[in-house]
Amino acid sequence: MDTIDYFRRVIEASGYPPELCFAHCLRACSSWRVYRECLTMSTPLRLTSTLATFTSSTVSFPFDLVAPFFCHAFGGTTFRDWCIAEVPGVFTSDQMTKHWLLAWLLVYFSPGDIAFRLLEDRRSPLRAITLVYEAIDAATTISGSVEKGIARFPQSTAAPLLLGLIAGVGGSVWRWLEKRGRYHDITTELAEPTRTFRQTLAYVFAHLWIRSRSGPRKARLIVATFHVLWTAMEEVTAMRLDWTDQLARNITTALRLALPQI
Fold first, then answer.
1. What is the predicted pLDDT for the residue at 62?
2. CA angle 146, 151, 156 (to 5 degrees)
3. 78 vs 198: CA distance, rounded Å
4. Three-state DSSP class for residue 51
5. For a pLDDT cut of 70, what percent of the chain falls above it?
6. HEC profile of 6-19
7. Distance CA 254, CA 76 (A)
8. Does 227 score more than 80 pLDDT?
9. How far is the C-alpha of 138 from the C-alpha of 195, rounded, in Å?
10. Cβ(170)–Cβ(75) under 8 Å?
11. Which residue, among 72, 69, 119, 78, has the nearest Cα to 98 in the 3D structure?
12. Could you tell me the pLDDT band of residue 234, with boundaries at 50, 70 and 90?
């Protein structure tokens, strides 16, 4: 019960809990390192529990310090804040910077590479704990952005929808820029929406619907709890379970039947 109450307080916190911020930074740095090391491999990487395939920890400084901050950590909320002429959090608080630097140092320079290996080892408690925090962070960022849109622009119907969506997928803008810088042939989220795009959109509408009936705190709690449970199921089954794909197909089919063909 104490554990449930603790996580409920974390989900409903009005600020940015430090443990949530640090876990998010750890997972972002680890995901970036996996991505970067995959680029150097001649064959596609298949993660194993021991990560025997990871042998390189070469760091391109300052690229590997700065790029993941925007591509995997805080690019979405930074882009969101720019859209409404607001100062991003990295400029208003030292917490993000300190946690980011510590997480980056651990992921790249911990003795024996222990931090990175534990973060990517499916048998590791550290991986499980950080994944829970990461799931909470992802869901509450979307819910918090929806609430920001309502508070800042109470007369606008579009504001909460757009801010929630931008916060959830805004990092893809930075990833697009990073890949374009290496001349990769890529498309944008809007051209080929991914699971993240569909999932973010579903959470935005779910938050608004639950909010209209039970209030913002209950909406935030339900959306975050669902996302944590779904993340846990994916981790246990070692499968990427996309519940949004069939949902999108059903909605598309319904719209085609309901709307006249043009």
1. 87
2. 75
3. 21
4. coil
5. 86
6. HHHHHHHCCCCCHH
7. 31
8. yes
9. 14
10. yes
11. 69
12. very high
